[in-house]
């Protein structure tokens, strides 16, 4: 997969299509989408406009989408993908990943205020249904997202025909995931970092939380490399670690500059400074699903953590 892709979570309707067009004009050849983001139809329209101009064709672009949590039962997997294909106006996606290992429906919310979870279906059965999508020619590769190392290894052991090719998990200098990435590299899985810039627009941001792109250490490194932005420094770090990344932006100048990361190189000393920035800060815990047995980040929850109620005013697309 191309090392830099455009992220589209939280990209609002009315801006997503334009962002996709600017990205493709700027050189991006990879788009990260999901039916949960509720903007795939606008991406599909934008792609049709781009193809109509004749500069690019479908096979020039690597499109990744995701199987949503409520559709893990084997009989639901193909229908979930087909909705995505209809919205994106394409016959196939290049990568289709299981969005989260835990199965839950967002609505209805249970009487106790928690999400409904399906404890009888399991991601290994889902994986076998995903394998059939490859045979049907609807997806080129299949992969995982938000799985922890044990869960990835479990899928690898259970795979009948196709191994997971991609793992998309949160990763940035404040959450470096070194063990997980080493495991992926050793077992032939391409790691793709989500929230690679620290997800400034995350809906649950709290005052006083660290803001990666404001970090003075990144500013200092950028200044030494001819005024590179902190985002460019961070994206360069991802590339030099051998991981792919999908920064999100709907701001044309940022979309363009986030792709201008192939004309400079961080020194070993720069890489060491970035390496020291790790503090295990995970922004996307989604702890309202932590009651599910397959919830992946149990070890990251605080001691005595109490599962919060599902937020009643949360729309399907404002979480992921
Ligand atoms: N599998 C999953 O569960 C999962 C979870 C989270 C994310 N993802 C994927 O990963 C993508 C990226 O993650 P993310 O959206 O959480 O966060 P991100 O890419 O780390 O950060 C996005 C934020 O950074 C801003 N930004 C982008 N470029 C910038 C620059 N050069 N200078 C300053 N600010 C900049 C954006 O603002 P503007 O848009 O206003 O320019 C936006 O507020 C998502 O969009 C999605 O495709 C997947």
Automatic annotation (TrEMBL):
The keyword NADP applies. Residues 4-274 form the NADP-dependent oxidoreductase domain. Substrate binds at residue 99. Transmembrane segments: none annotated. Keywords: NADP, Oxidoreductase. GO terms for molecular function: aldose reductase (NADPH) activity. The record marks 66 as: Lowers pKa of active site Tyr. InterPro entries: AKR, Aldo/ket_reductase_CS, NAD(P)_OxRdtase_dom_sf, NADP_OxRdtase_dom. One of its GO terms (cellular component) is cytosol. The active site is at 37 (proton donor). Belongs to the aldo/keto reductase family. This is NADP-dependent oxidoreductase domain-containing protein. It comes from Monosiga brevicollis (Choanoflagellate).
